[in-house]
């Protein structure tokens, strides 16, 4: 998946818009990229047509109807994001890790004379935003100072707006931009050494209450009401320096370096509904299907930009500009289907498909700039079908189960090459501590390529682009107690 670095230009604040969002923000919050439970993870996240433990609450609640025992589940996940970044002929490696509670909850079956009635409630961690990127290279053709200097006609603005723009523009206040004939021009436009360190964090927590009931012989219906909350953090340090003394004989003559820091913290809250069906046939095979309604998010965001310039004579100038905004998004409807079947008593096979039309993703605010992002979403994104497959082998002599799986998530962007698709290989095992207590462990290795634009300049679509090769490792361990 593509990732775009964010630059918050002060011109946006001055002219009265609150838009500091892009389609990448909406897409980030729309993708559930963290399986709930180690069993699902180790089988390639196959669960729509399997769903026979607590994790069914988050993938197909209809599977809860097959459970006849109380179950308490708790688990941890460890996320490791490794990035090999290429930038103007130089490669830099970076890594970021996080450990979180993955799931905690209870399955509560109700005694019935016929059929089944089962409830479940609890917590699942459904998305993780942890990532990193580091780079270092000489950029001969552009500068972030140019990107931060808005191309506006100062004479066409009111005196108050003109004053606000100049007072809050980082290049102007740090003596890296000047006004000439009613225009604001950057003094540094290219030939700089650029370094960057980007770290992202946070995730989505899913609080769910659901239940399942048999509505016919071997057929169950399940519903889960999901409340989502979470945070997203973004921390970037970007520097430029005149390592080749290009600006010794050109304005601003003694430019040495520029430091630019961007921080973002977003608070998210949302909700959706998950409805599922499950057909079970004599314990030999299952067929499942789900509909996840669009998730409606309200997002409150605070951010800050800081810039500091340094010159050869020792002069230093700085400016910090904080800001805040609120916006809302609605994610697409998600349709899923799955099947699992037993081959003898020792082999279980399963597979899932998941369809999402990403062109239906949208900002729901009545804001012209966000509406323009919605138009970009419709022309840039596409519908995707994710494929998942898994296998489970039971070793009766050792009270152990061995698992493996594969996940293929195509890129939601229309023009991305195939190596931008996410491909995961998973494996794991489960064993009994005693008759009622089991431990499940799963591990996934994912790889894909992407890119990141640190800023954008008209006419230079790749002004400061990094090419990134991602290696993502995920470990999950879950303890389940049935009684």
Q: How is the topology of this model organized?
A:
Elements: H1 10-14, H2 23-30, H3 38-42, H4 56-59, E1 71-87, E2 90-110, E3 117-128, E4 131-139, H5 144-147, H6 159-168, H7 170-173, E5 177-180, E6 183-186, E7 192-216, E8 219-241, E9 255-281, E10 285-292, E11 296-311, E12 316-330, E13 334-343, E14 347-357, E15 362-363, H8 368-380, E16 383-395, E17 400-409, E18 422-432, E19 437-453, E20 465-482
Antiparallel strand pairs: 1-2, 1-20, 2-3, 3-7, 4-7, 5-6, 7-8, 8-9, 9-10, 9-11, 10-13, 11-12, 12-15, 13-14, 14-16, 16-17, 17-18, 18-19, 19-20
Give an account of the 3D structure.
This protein has one domain: Porin (Beta Barrel). It starts with 9 loop residues before the first helix and ends with a strand. The protein has 8 helices and 20 strands. Strand 5 and strand 6 form a beta hairpin. The model is unreliable at 4-19 (pLDDT under 50). Helix content is 11%, strand content 57%. The strands form 2 sheets. It has a 14-stranded antiparallel β-barrel with strand order 1-2-3-7-8-9-10-13-14-16-17-18-19-20. It has a two-stranded antiparallel sheet with strand order 5-6. The chain is elongated, with a radius of gyration of 26 Å. With 483 residues, the chain is mainly beta.
